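USER: For my understanding, would you kindly supply a protein sequence with its structure tokens?

ASSISTANT:
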Amino acid sequence: MYEAMVTVIGTVVTHPIKRDLTNGEQVVTFRMASNSRRFNPETGEWVDNGTLYLTVSCWRRLVLGVDASLRRGDPIIAHGQLRSHEYRGRDGAERRDVEMRATTIGPDLSRCTAQVVRRAVSGVASGPSTLARNGCDRSSPDDRARVDGQEPGEGATSLSSAPPELADPERVDA
């Protein structure tokens, strides 16, 4: 199987799900969409040119940060190893799914703002005891993926306090 390292800019389209595996490891998975757009010089407008959907899986140190930070509708940049899986569906048709095993995920700061909370070496952060969730500025509606007719981020709530693993986060000045 050919595996390529790629960076994909897009939007989280499903709620991230954290699972505990039998071997003691944890994994967070979600689907993301990346919209391709091009400028049509004849009409002077941007035209949709297809959407790439892929499943993103997050392992090890990435689990804690993704689980605490990402929600459906969030604009992200994901980097990792791209794989394709071929399988036969329930209807008997052959299908192909694209999956990314992410090594790095972060907010797309061209479409949102974020407060960085550093984790200490032991996995516990230090500093003030509040955690702010990424906030989309909604300044560019054409750049956002639509999800089941809803706007990205609908129904998402801000975190009012840090989970126990991130108690006492340290503020970072850019």
Remarks:
- The longest strand covers residues 26-40.
- Residues 69 and 163 are 11 Å apart (CA to CA).
